[in-house]
């Protein structure tokens, strides 16, 4: 396991760590913290929803709801963290490395269910489990919840690029 | 193989073919009648027109339903329905 020191208590990976693993940047850098991680297999992460997020100014004026498609993107970014840390571990022996240029792509979204609106003030907890792999494609299952309420379930197919 | 054994084998194969065709249609949301899919029909390209992303869903469906794993080493089993049936029967025997 890496000897890096995430800034926040309870963090396995800080936002700065995530930024080393992913190519995404503002306004499309979405995860705040990874709180549990098994590289290549599973992870848990949090995102705090804030009214200052520019996307909420237009979605919707007078009734801010965090877009469901961005919740799905959060799961996709968490998948990139899961496989990115596995790649970094293989390459360097550390879970955090400069592997952003090797992040794969979102290939398919299946069975997405948006169970409850996500609004400013919510802390969304994302959980991801890796599944079957065939021909460079990986199936992942993602869930998101706010407190005890599930807000999203989804299955994605993502591509993995060689580390 | 006796005539009775051959008949039993053929019946089992026919039943498995129908199960796999139904699975294909259900899991991949194909707009075709399972019975209209030929046993020699290619699954990709000009066959059922599946694409590479369908490979993953099909592999998961086969594993969920028949307990048979498809990996990068045997994706050739997905080229046609007959090849897939051969793979399932070989793994189950």
Describe this structure in words.
The complex is a heterodimer of chains A (163) and B (93). Chain A has 163 residues and is of the alpha+beta class. Chain A is built from 3 helices and 6 strands, in the order H-E-E-H-H-E-E-E-E. Chain A has a 6-stranded antiparallel sheet with strand order 1-2-4-5-6-3, with helices on one face. The model of chain A has no long low-confidence stretch (mean pLDDT 93). By secondary structure, chain B is mainly alpha-helical. In chain B, 56% of the residues lie in helices and 0% in strands. Chain B has 3 helices and no strands. The mean pLDDT of chain B is 90. The chains are: A alpha+beta (163), B mainly alpha (93). Chain A binds chain B through residues 107-108, 110, 131-135, 137-139, 157, and chain B through 52-53, 55-57, 59-60, 63, 70-72, 75.
**Rg of chain B (CA only):** 13 Å
Mean pLDDT of chain A: 93
Along the chain, the helix and strand elements of chain A come as HEEHHEEEE
The profile of the biggest β sheet of chain A is: 6 strands, antiparallel
What is the percentage of strand-forming residues of chain B? Answer: under 5%
- Tell how many strands the DSSP assignment of chain B holds: 0
Helix content of chain B: 55-70%
Structural class of chain B: mainly alpha
- Tell me, briefly, the overall form of chain A: globular
**What does the radius of gyration of chain A come to?**
15 Å
The CATH architecture term of chain A is Roll
CATH homologous superfamily title of chain A: Hotdog Thioesterase
């Amino acid at each position: 396991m890496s000897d890096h020191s995430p800034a926040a208590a309870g963090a396995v990976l800080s936002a700065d760590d995530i930024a080393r693993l992913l190519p995404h940047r503002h306004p499309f850098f979405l995860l705040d913290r990874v709180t549990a991680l098994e590289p290549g297999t599973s992870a848990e992460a949090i995102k705090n929803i804030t009214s200052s997020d520019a996307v909420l100014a237009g979605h919707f004026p007078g009734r801010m709801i965090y877009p469901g498609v961005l919740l799905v993107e959060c799961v996709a970014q968490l998948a990139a963290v899961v496989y990115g840390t596995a790649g970094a571990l293989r390459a360097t022996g550390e879970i955090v490395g400069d592997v952003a240029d090797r992040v794969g792509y979102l290939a398919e979204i299946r069975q997405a269910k948006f169970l409850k609106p996500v609004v400013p003030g919510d802390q969304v907890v994302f959980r991801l489990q890796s599944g079957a792999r065939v021909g460079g494609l990986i199936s992942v299952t993602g869930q998101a919840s706010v407190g005890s309420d599930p807000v999203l379930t989804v299955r994605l197919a993502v591509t993995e690029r060689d580390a | 193989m006796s005539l009775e054994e051959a008949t039993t084998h053929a019946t089992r194969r026919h039943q498995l073919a129908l199960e796999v065709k139904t699975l294909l249609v259900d899991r991949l949301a194909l707009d075709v009648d399972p019975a209209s899919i030929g046993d020699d029909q290619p699954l990709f390209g000009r066959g059922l027109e599946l694409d590479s992303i369908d490979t993953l869903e099909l592999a998961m469906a086969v594993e969920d339903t028949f307990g048979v794993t498809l990996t990068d080493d045997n994706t050739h089993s997905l080229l046609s329905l007959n090849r897939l049936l051969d793979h399932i029967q070989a793994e189950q025997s």
